[in-house]
Specification:
Layout lengths: L7 E7 L6 H9 L6 E8 L5 H11 L3 E6 L4 H11 L4 E4 L5 E2 L3 H8 L5 E10 L2 E6 L5 E4 L3 H8 L13 E4 H4 L12 H12 L2 E14 L11 H24 L4 H25 L7 H12 L14 H9 L2 H21 L1
Helix pairs in contact: 7-8, 8-9, 9-10, 10-12
């Protein structure tokens, strides 16, 4: 395959997925669309995954394998981005798969947009559990850009959180890369950072991706100190990109509510709940003060503006004394630990 005829680069990070890799790569070979390259980034696998990658690369010139020391999924995706030659980039996780005709559908629908957002089917134990997709196939350009967010931010923003089931124009990605300090929410941060740079986005109302949910995946331990540390890295970066999108869409209600619903209601309140219920060395005056500064960016944040279950946390925030909050949380965490021991 000549690289100048390659329209699409499919980047697949691979780490110890020998059980699923043939399913993933076979789903690409089953596509009718053929103008692609597949970049397999073996991230220091210790099972037979490297051999499987090499087998595909040896028998099909469109497949390339890069073997590298383990550095995490962000490191693997970034290594793939450095090698990619296609006009568009697609990310595929090695334990997932493309649905039939996915590449045909995606490459036929794109008409020069910076990004295409399509739907996916989620499976648990091989059983379909839900479909997440745009309501319509629409091209949002220039002045229509705010309407893209208004139409497609739904629930926990699940359609926009992950890099898969999407096309990204390589030139639009530019120097943007996945944050290698993060192993949680790095997907969302990348997607939103690229969206903030887009001048045009298209939605496709069909499903193109099979997302196989597995217990024990990255991000499943959301009460550990490591998870809290990750969020302290993530929060200022995510806040910055949300603010930049809000500046471009100043009259878009769903964009304006995203900071409160996601930054505060989802991530910060989760951290406060952990502090309230579990004893941890992460509970310090400085760490609480950081969260309160993020909360203060939303000047209209009120006691009843998120969820009823957060009223106690919001009352402490409104009091505005991080040291007092720490003292209260130490008491509630101690009581919670005693209650758990006695159950």
């Amino acid at each position: 395959m000549l690289m100048d005829k390659c329209r699409l680069s499919i980047i697949i990070p691979v780490y110890n997925v020998e059980e699923y890799l043939d399913r993933c790569l076979g789903s690409i070979l089953d596509q009718d669309f053929t103008s692609y390259e597949v970049i397999l980034v073996d991230d220091g696998s210790t099972d037979s995954s490297p051999l499987i990658c090499d087998r595909y690369s040896a028998t099909d010139s469109r497949f390339r394998t890069l073997h590298k020391p383990n550095g995490g999924v962000s490191s693997a995706r970034n290594a793939g981005l450095e090698l990619a030659k296609g006009e568009y980039i697609m990310f595929l996780d090695s334990d997932d798969a493309l649905l039939p005709y996915a590449l045909d559908d995606m490459m036929e629908v794109v008409t020069g947009e910076d990004m295409v957002v399509a739907g996916y089917a989620a499976f648990m134990g091989g059983v379909p559990v839900r479909n997440v997709r745009p309501r319509a196939t629409v091209s949002y350009r220039s002045a229509d850009y705010p309407k893209f967010f208004q139409d497609n931010i739904r629930r926990n923003c699940e359609m926009l959180d992950a890099p898969w089931s999407k096309l990204f124009k390589r030139k639009t990605i530019g120097s943007t890369r996945f944050n290698e300090e993060l192993s949680y929410a790095e997907d969302k941060l990348f997607v939103f950072t690229v969206m903030a740079k887009c001048s045009s986005i298209k939605t496709f109302s069909g499903d193109v991706y099979a997302y196989y949910m597995r217990p024990g995946s990255l991000g499943s331990d959301i009460r550990s100190d490591r998870h809290i540390q990750q969020l302290y890295v993530f929060l200022p970066l995510y806040a910055k990109v949300l603010m930049s999108i809000a500046e471009r869409c100043p009259n878009t209600p769903k964009v304006l509510s995203r900071y409160r619903r996601d930054m505060i209601g989802r991530y910060i309140c989760r951290m406060l709940n952990i502090y309230m219920s579990r004893r941890t060395k992460m509970l310090t005056r400085d760490n609480i003060a950081i969260l309160y500064r993020h909360m203060s960016a939303d000047r209209s944040l009120g006691i009843f503006s998120i969820r009823a279950g957060q009223i106690f946390n919001l009352l402490l925030y409104k009091i505005g004394r991080p040291g007092f909050t720490v003292a209260v949380y130490k008491v509630t965490a101690f009581v919670s630990s005693v209650f758990r021991r006695n159950k």
